[in-house]
Amino acid sequence: MPPSRAVTPQSLPDLIAKDLRERILSGELAEGEAIRQEALAEDYAVSRMPVREALKRLDAEGLVQLAANRGATVTRHSLDEIGEIFDLRVLLEVDLLRRGLPAMTEADFDTCAGILDQMEASYASDDVAAWGALNWAYHAAFYAKAGRGLTHDLLDRINLLCDRYVRMHLSVMGQRGTAKQEHRDLLVLARAGRVEDAADLLTRHIQRTRAELIEMIATKRGADTG
Prior knowledge:
This protein is mainly α and about 230 residues long.
């Protein structure tokens, strides 16, 4: 007899948190938007308890802000905070690249190439949901051999906060061609063992995204309040 696929009550917060996380990262739930537990409980056909637990998890991740007696809202980062997220990416990712790249093998580079092919296919098909995950998988593949577990843990959290901005950048700014070329160039430099050139390119890549995003979000927020 096949094992049951029934969802256990203990797994409900995980499932709800996963769905809400994707709705936030995709922009379906916009920054600053109020989240009503009662409405979510009705949407998911569950009691308020697993919804409340799911929101606590997203609050711990920085995607949702919970306030006593005021409910929950989707986190709205300030422009300075968005800039800080990308500054942290530069600090951590460039260090991991320098440490990890010399230990990479041809098989590792082939893995990067395969992820890159998938990412470019997602651009072509406008698969927004795949962009953030594939972008992170590609970058992380260069850092896997760095042997810095604590740094990876920190970067995982930062990447989660960064994900929705990466998707926003690719979908709204239409910069897929530039991103595609920079990712390809990074792989070429990495295969050639040009560590410092790869580090310089990665720095410029993240800083360019940072600058364009902040300009775009500042303009959008100004239009919304104008």
